[in-house]
Amino acid sequence: MEAVYARHASLQDFEEFWRDHYDWLKDRGYLLRPRGLRRLLYPTKLRSDPRNHCVPIYEALEGPKTETQRNIIAVMPFLARWDDAEFNTVGEVIDFCKQMFEGLQFMHNLNIAHNDAKDTNIMMDWSPIYDIPPHGINVAMNANWSGLAKPHSRTTHPVKYYFIDWNLSGHYDPSLGTPMLRPGYGGDQSWMFIVWEMSFEEDLYLVGSKLGFHRGETLSFCKT
What is the superkingdom listed in this entry's lineage (predicted)? Predict the structure, then answer.
C-alpha cells in the first residue's frame, strides 16, 4: 500500500490548476479536498423531472482571468463511469437501457441533441452502490485509498445514469426542419458512413450501438 501512496503522491498536470485555485474556490464556499471538490446545492426545477438524465450543473464560477487558461469552472456532482461496477442481472441491464433512452427522449422533446452520446459520456451516481466513493482514476480503489472499492448490487441499490460532456450539443429550432450535421461529428466515428447526420437519430444510434455491442461483445454486460 505504501508503494501505491508514493506513486500518487505528486500532482498530475491537470491537478495543478485546482491547486493554484484552492484559495479562490475556498473564498466562494467550495472546499477543494485532496483529489476532489464537493458541495451540496438544491436542485433546480428541471432537475426534479425523473426523465432528466443530464448531469446537473450546480453553479458556473468565473475564475481569475489568465491568458492561457479557461476561467469558467462548472460545479457538478462527482460521478462514476456507468460500467465501473459489473452488471449482475438482465434486469439491471434493462434498467440501464430504459434510463438512457428515457434521457434521450427528454432531451429531444426539448429540441436538444447531445451529438456525442458515446459510452464514455455516460456516467452514474455512485452513492447508492458504494459506501465510499471510488477513486477517480483507479476505480478499483476507494477514493481515500483505504482499501478496495466494494460495490453493492444495482438490483438492491438502484442507481441513476447521466449524460455528460455537452460541448457538441445543439438546441434546434423545429420550424427549420430536421437538424443535419456533417459526418465525423463527435468522438464516435462509426457514424461516418452517412453523408449527412441527423442530430437526434445520431444520439439514438450512438447509445444503441453501445448497448448492443459494448466493447465488441453482444450484450456482454453481465458476468458469467
Answer: Eukaryota
Single-letter code of the amino acid located at 168: L
Reported as type and span, the H/E element at residue 101 is helix 90-109
Cα 25 from Cα 33, distance rounded (Å): 11
Q: What pLDDT, in 10s, does the model give residues 7-29?
A: 444 556 666 776 777 777 777 77
Q: What is the C-alpha to C-alpha distance for residues 182 and 5, in angstroms, rounded to an integer?
A: 46
Closest CA to 93 of 217, 196, 182: 217
Domains of the chain: 2-215 (1.10.510)
Spatial separation of the C-alpha atoms in residues 144 and 215, rounded to whole Å: 30
User: Which pLDDT tens digit goes with each residue over 28-49?
Assistant: 776 655 445 433 333 456 678 8
Q: Which residues contact 62 (CB under 8 A, 6 or more apart)?
A: 71, 72
DSSP state of 187: S
Beta-carbon contacts of 104 under 8 Å, excluding residues fewer than 6 positions away, are 114, 117, 203, 204, 207
| CA of residue 122 relative to chain centroid, distance | 5
The H-or-E segment that residue 33 falls in is strand 31-33
Cell of 219: 450484450
Q: How far is it, in rounded angstroms, from Cα 77 to Cα 122?
A: 14
Got the DSSP string for 52-88?
A: --BPP--EEEE----SSS--EEEE----EETTSSPB-
Strands (E), the chain: 31-33, 36-38, 59-62, 72-75, 80-81, 112-113, 122-124, 161-163, 170-171, 180-181, 197-198, 213-214, 217-218
Q: Any idea which residue has 484552492 for its cell?
A: 22
